Amino acid sequence: MTTMPLPDALDAPPSPTAPSPPSERWSVGRWAARIGRFLAYGFLALVLGAIGFSLVLGLLSAGASTVIVWVGLPILMLAVLVARGFAMAERAVQSSFLGTDLPTPAPVRAPAGAGRTRRLLTPLTDPQNWLDSLWVLVNFLLSLITFPLALAWTVGAFATLGGPIATLVLDNVLPSSSNDGLGTLLGVPEPFTLPAEMAMQFGVGLLFLLTLGPVVRGLTALHQGVARGLLSSRHQEQQRLVRTEQSRAAGRSAESAALRRLERDLHDGPQQRLVRASMDLARVEALAARDPEKAQTVLRETREQLGLTLDDLRRLSRGIAPPILVDRGLAAALTELAAISPLPTAVECPELDLPEHVEIGIYYVVSEALTNAAKHSGAGRVLVEVARVGDDARVRIEDDGRGGAEVRTGGGLAGLAGRVASLEGRFTVTSPAEAGTRVEAVIPCAS
Predict the structure, then answer these.
(1) What is the pLDDT of residue 26?
(2) What's the CA angle centered on 96, arms 92 and 98, to 5 degrees?
(3) DSSP classification of residue 407
């Protein structure tokens, strides 16, 4: 199988048709491990946060107060570098304890030829360094709340069994203290004071126990969200920019290759036939007076050549959106492609509200795939399916031919891959030997 998304698979979104990973069954061991990991993370985050908060806040304050005399610039630079170090530690800690993937954004680089001072001060121009500094301050304040809360909730959960046992032990060791319990304060009659107090302790502990899991999950999500927003949001923006630039480059490359192929096909086909037709017409002019029958024969041959030229031009125009696509929609245009295909072709294309550029992309994929199938597959039938999957449009072309198709540089499938990549889509060719070929393209409607 050959898969060609964008030129580089940078954080490519998962295919909407791919099966989701199976969810893990709940178990006491995983539940306890999740709570233990968050408590360990919370304690470590609190310790590192206290150190980072003190260092970064102190350096920022000192640098900001002395920046007017230039002494503060090196101090500020040291502050952001220290913050970057603590941010890197947070990425490692969250990855180890919470399983969070926090990719590091690419740093701002000094331009080529920049002087030494410019290079030294470049960290101060990197927005991510200031986001790291903000995260150091915010995360410490957040840890001051979340870790004690998670610890208190965990301790409260142990009261489910620990509270009643402790009360029973104290009642047996210090009987005189039984009159000072919660049951007495609530006015419970004397014979029922101890059971009522144990029941209330068990109920409160049970409430903590049942809500401990959701509370820990919520606190984990809170830390992950804050870290992702401050430490990795620029990485996602950078990847989107890279994908956009690569998509444009792929589009330019695909269009250039298509134009070169069109030029070659026009030169090797219609242009040669038109040159021959022109020469034949010149012969007809010379033969018209002295040999009319021969002139008629040459005219018939010329008419045949012009008919073949028209067929060539129709074939070459299939990669360009025809008027029927604009006038009658994608389903009608694909039906026309199926009708003129040399192979029996069935089309399943419901009426879909798709952007124009997506419809043109699908039309191009189907046109080229049918041409390749007719030339190389030896298939007896072809099926074309178009569907809307969430925010994406999916087109699938399957045949029952000999298989073995590959995406080769300069080939028709490579051109399709480039065209789909220019639309920020994903292109897949599955073609096992003697088992047919499936060409699939998934194009985002918002590309």
Answers:
(1) 65
(2) 105
(3) -
| pLDDT tens digits, one per residue of 4-19 | 444 343 344 444 444 4
Give the SS3 label for residue 378. Answer: coil
How many Cα atoms occupy the beta-carbon half-sphere of 197 within 13 Å? Answer: 27
- Residues sharing a CB contact under 8 Å with residue 398, sequence separation 6 or more, in sequence order: 382, 383, 385, 436, 437, 438, 439
pLDDT at position 12: 42
Contact 358, 445 (CB under 8 A): yes
pLDDT bin (cut points 50, 70, 90) of residue 140 is very high
Give 209's contacts (C-beta < 8 A, 6+ positions apart).
Answer: 157, 160
Contact 297, 336 (CB under 8 A): no
User: How far apart, in whole angstroms, are the C-alpha atoms of residue 127 and residue 322?
Assistant: 48
Q: How do 437-444 and 392-399 pair as beta strands?
A: antiparallel
The whole-angstrom separation of Cα 294 and Cα 274 is 20
DSSP tag of 320: S
pTM, full prediction: 0.52
Q: Is the pLDDT of residue 338 over 80?
A: yes
Judge contact between 316 and 273, C-beta under 8 A.
Answer: no
The string of DSSP codes covering 38-87 is HHHHHHHHHHHHHHHHHHHHHHHHHHHHHGGGTTHHHHHHHHHHHHHHHH
Alpha-helical (H) ranges within 291-424 are 292-316, 323-328, 330-340, 356-372, 412-422
Q: Give me the amino acid identity at 138.
A: V
**Residue 231 in contact with residue 93, Cβ under 8 Å?**
no
CB 57 within 8 A of CB 137: yes
| Helix 233-268 with 127-173: angle, nearest 10 deg | 130
Structure tokens at 272: 């040669």
